[in-house]
Structure formats: C-alpha cells, structure tokens
Amino acid sequence: MSRPMREARVDLGALRANVEFLRAATAPAKCMVVVKAEGYGHGALEAARAAVEAGADWLGVVDIAEALALRAEGVAVPILAWLHGEDADFAAAIASGIDVGVSTRDQLERAAAAPGLAIVQLKFDTGLSRNGIEERDAAGMLARAAELERGGRIRVRGIFSHLANAGAVEDAAQLRRFEAVLVQAADAGLTPEVRHLAATAGALRIPAARFDLVRLGIGAYGLSPFDGETSASLGLRPVMELSAEIVSVKRVPSGSGVSYGYTHRTDGDSTLALVPLGYADGIPRSASSAAPVSINGKTYRVAGRVAMDQFVVDMGADTAREGDRAILFGDPATGVPSADDWAAAANTINYEIVTRIGPRVTRTFVS
Fold first, then answer.
1. Cα separation of 81 and 65, whole Å?
2. Would you identify the CATH topology of the domain 12-221?
3. One of 36, 221, 300, 351 is an active-site residue; which one?
4. N or C: which end of the chain has fewer CB within 10 A?
5. Domain ranges, ordered by start, for the chain
6. pTM attached to this predicted model
7. Which of 30, 40, 250, 260 is catalytic?
8. Pick from 339, 115, 81, 102: nearest CA to 230
9. Is 221 a catalytic residue?
C-alpha cells in the first residue's frame, strides 16, 4: 500500500517505552500522561490508549470537551481537565467521571451546584502567573472547599500547581509555596488523594517536586524539555516522524531564483525537489532557508520561503525522483533531522513543532 502524500508516522511502541521509562525514573509517584491538543499533535485517542497500556495512572487534558471525547471512545482511567470558560459543562464532566480542575471561587461554586458529586482538584498559582488560586485567596478557597466537601457537594481529590521552569532558585521558591498550600489544606481538613506540581522537566530534575503524581507531557512523546539536552541523553525516543512525497523534481541552471521573493538562488546547476507541506500544514515559515530535510539518506536545507502548501529543497548536484520521501524530522538515531533541529531553525521549541502539524497531514500509527 502506498504511503499518504503527507504523513506523520506515530510510533506508539516508542510512546509506550517512554512512559515506562519515565514511570520507573519517577517512582513511586504515580504518573499522568498529558494528551491535550490532540496528544501534542500525535493523536489524542491513540496516545491515550498507548499510555494506559504502558501503565499511566491518569490522563490530563486542558478542557472538558477533550476529556469527553476520550470517554466517548471508552477510555476509562481517571482524567483531569483544568482550563474552563464561562460555558464549561461541569455537569457533563461530573456525569462522565472527569476531575474538574478549579482555579477560581466561581468555578468551585459552579462545580458544587452541578448535579451529582463533583470531583475537583484545586489549582494554585505558585508563581507561573497563569490560572490558579492566588496566594491571598488560598485560605478562603480551602475553607470553602472543605465546607462544600463536608456538605457532600464536592470531593477534593487533588491539589496541584505548575512550575515555571525559570531556574533552580525560582523552582525552589515555587516548591516552598506549594508546600505551604498543602499545610493550609490540611489545616482546613482536606485530605487530597493526589498532590502534583511537576511536569516532565520538574519530574526529572526535582525529586522533591514529585509528590504523589507527576504529569508527563513532552517527555512521553520522546522530546526533551531541556535546552541543550537531547532525547537520547534522557533515554527517550521521539514518537513522530514527519515526511512527504516529493511531487516534482527539476534541473535548473545556476542563479535560478527559488520560491517567493527569490530569497534563495542556486549556486550552480541544481536539482530542485518540491515537498507538498507548507505553513497551512504547520510548517513554520520562519524556518525558510534554514530547516533540515532528509532525502535518500542525505540532509539538505529548505531553499527559499516556505509557502502555504509547499517548499523547495535545493539538492545541488544530487538527484531524486518523484515519489521519493522527504523526511523533515523524526528520531535522529535513524539519521534524520530532529524536531529540535526544526525548532532551532524556526527559533521556537520542539513542543510547537509537533503540536502545530495540521489536519491535512495523515497520522499513521505503528507499533
């Protein structure tokens, strides 16, 4: 069977191996694998099932709709959803056994007022300055949550926060703030089942931040959360390989302009290979004339500007045929560029490279 013209090949065996490795590295803490944003672009349902097969105790998503989609496909493990708008359907979450992350008094009251027993996890802002209960409101929120729990309206299953990864000093300060919240929670009479602060970076580098549960995001997909440290050095395998069929090959003379604006001209008689991926597919335009592409075992660069649907590779004196594969990134252990290489070329991070891959790209799942 021929491969799709545009393909993100997702190695679920690698994902399972990453989860197993990270679970062992952070034990005895339980692990939550985060499958928000379509599993960081890899496919939420498939990633969720592979993670559970590898022993994930929890799954994490951003919003209730993502959680409900997993429940509709039979995913039964505990799921936490933690970012809500004014119209968030807490009743549906409660009916489907989804934990509701609570960051405001209004969310707490809405969850308690919904039909059924709301299972909530209280999120505190310990320094990231995003959503979360602020320090000045902590005592009042904890007291109210304890009151609602005693009244049978909610159960506080968890307390959590998120590190800013701003350096050892700042991480330590956030850890102290989180520990202070936990003391306040105990004083209020709350006994949460799970306390969690660390995502992949904190889970690997700050053992004291593991508490009862770690949230495995980018690491589960085989990518490093650290600048200057590779997946391989962390014992992880990249899960996604992005490639496309070469749809046009032509020889052009020296000095030929390539793509919009002629920001690239050939140095000599050259072979130009056309790759049908562009910024409509999530290929960053900022990687124009910079990002690496592997064709037939050799690495070249994007030539000129990335367009909406396509970009060009200048192969110089080398040749290719229509139908050959151009591999943008994958596991560098196989000799191809990495998502980190593309992130460097686009002046961004590997998270963005994989999560922005668009719906025209076919996901193929292999084990």
1. 9
2. TIM Barrel (3.20.20)
3. 36
4. N
5. 12-221, 240-366
6. 0.95
7. 260
8. 339
9. no
